[in-house]
Known about the structure:
It contains 13 helices and ten strands. By secondary structure, the protein is α/β, with parallel strands linked by helices. Helix 4 links the parallel strand 6 and strand 7 (148-153). Bound molecules: NADPH dihydro-nicotinamide-adenine-dinucleotide phosphate.
Amino acid sequence: MEYRRLGRSGLKVSALSLGSWVTYSNQVNATSAREIMAAARDHGVNFFDNAETYAAGESERIMGAAFRELGWAREHYVVSSKFFWGLSEDPNVHHTLNRKYLMGAIDGSLRRFGLDYLDLIYCHRPDPNTPIEETVWAMHDIISRGKALYWGTSEWSADEIRAAWDIAERHHLHKPVMEQPQYNLFVRKRVEQEYRRLYEDIGLGLTTWSPLASGVLSGKYVGGIPADSRGTLPGYEWLRERLVNAERNAAAARLKPLADELGCSLAQLSLAWCLKHPQVSSVITGASRVAQVDENMKALEILPRLTTEIMARMEAACETCSS
Ligand code: NDP
């Protein structure tokens, strides 16, 4: 495994990490989740991503139980959660980054995990109805109280991230260290263009999500929806449409011969492409079984084979459906 600095911070995260979205509770029970996490750890993964909203808190409970049962020393893994959606419809704790919500959300998350502190906490989306200054102060206070170590954002615009950073700088507060954007062969603009100035100016680090576009970039949806995939889950109809998107699946079919040429799977090739971006601290993978972890972690071995020419051919194969 390769370990990369999380932006300009001193924290090192595994270049490939493991997240629990969709999967934990919906697809896998606590036992399978623990086995998947153990397999990832065996490959050197030290960063495990979660969010309050995943399976309405159940995902944090499952991951916390796995940490305990696996008996890992707390200093040997990095765990995150993300806040915004809230666990009830109450106007003060729903779709918000206000101080009241955030101060309660971290306590709820720690309770579900059964941990004293989280390593990384993210503002899961921007909140246009709360001043950024209020959110920055709340995130700073959570860190000052020892409940988390670093904070960042997810899917914030470059302007919003810069505004948060400037406020923190002005008031000598803990600054946002990392952003969690979607990044894969189909979704590129934010990471490659919008955030470009932030890498140098504020040392923003990235932990990126859906590297396989939910599995499409493994090629598994080219022939329809496999029965054992997230594409069959009730409640995920909105995702199903993306999984069977004709243009994306045609691109996956065009990529497959390239993977064959390099002697790897399409999933490995697609993950390796994400790892190539120099600002990506960690590519957060998803897996509903150990075999997927074993396959995906080998993406790092492909990196030396990913020449500029191969990258250009991959990007050309996805040109019609990439933004
Ligand atoms: P991917 O795009 O990598 O999709 C992962 C899914 O693809 C797996 O669960 C599995 O689905 C399938 N898959 C994985 N490997 C293989 C393989 N080798 N062959 C075939 N199929 C494979 O990542 P996710 O969409 O899961 O996102 C990763 C993480 O990013 C999440 O867990 C979460 O932590 C984070 N995230 C953050 C978001 C944010 O807003 N900040 C939003 C979304 C995700 P299946 O079970 O169907 O086989």
